[in-house]
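Feature request, filed as a ticket because there's no other form

It would be nice if the structure record came with a short human-readable summary line next to the tokens. Right now we just get the raw output. Example of a typical job, pasted below so the devs can see what we mean:
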Amino acid sequence: MGSYSPDDDFEATRVANVGELQKELPARSPKDRAYLIVLAGSNVGEMYRVEGAEIVIGRASGTTIRLNDDGISRRHARLLQLDSQVLIEDLNSSNGTLVNGEQVTRVALHDGDKIRLGSTTILKFTYHDHLDESFQQQMYDAALRDALTKAFNKKYFLDRLETEVSYARRHSAHLSLLMFDVDHFKRINDTFGHLAGDYVLARIAKIASNTVRTEDVFARYGGEEFGILCRGVALENAGILGERLRLLIEGSVFEHEGVRVPTTISVGVAAHPVVPVESGLQLIAAADEALYEAKRTGRNRVLLKFGPKP
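Raw output as currently delivered:
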């Protein structure tokens, strides 16, 4: 699969001198755990536990917390945890690190502090016990995920799609979209019942979730249709992903209440800049066109949408 190569220079890290800062913060209950919650940006609602002596935030694949929003450097900032105290240190990032509106080099964090990284990402630093953590995760899932399939919901998908299209156009980067749906899904519902149909959707979603990359966005677009958004992936490589997923589903046994339910999918793939687009909806239309052609020509296949010939 293709990968995006950011053009940021290496950002050096510095050793933190935390002796004086340690004295500033009161001790916390051992039940409390430190977290970062994404308030704004492409990962909005997501919750990251602050664990370990050092947590690096940035765009690079090796960072502890990976955020791909505009303006975030490969290694943007790091958190240093000492006992119950947490510090944030900017790592010579291109656009700086702001805490409560003030640009910082290194500072101790307090419960409720707002951290701004890059152009759009805002994080909230907070402490929770395990019950708060569970509640926050439930709220996150309810707001952003489809209840049946646990894939992202359509609203989140469309929001991310517009963000990713804007990013791809600004940086001349690859962006691929796979749209797929279940072949003869109405027949499945009519023949085996709606509970069997729900089972098929949930099972397909689980297979897809285990197939895509961590950074890909997998969502239920509506009914039996799903989408996979792949940043930094060219059209041909997205087609390989689609074929891998198609084969996995074709080769899986779908059995509901002891009855086998034959299940296949059709996949349409489109990519920027092969198909130049100005909006997310245009990319969906291109992928859907390939999907409809896959269904028209026999189903259980993957078709790519190529742009106009020069």
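Something like this underneath would help us a lot:
The first helix runs from residue 19 to 22.
The first strand starts at residue 33 and ends at 40.
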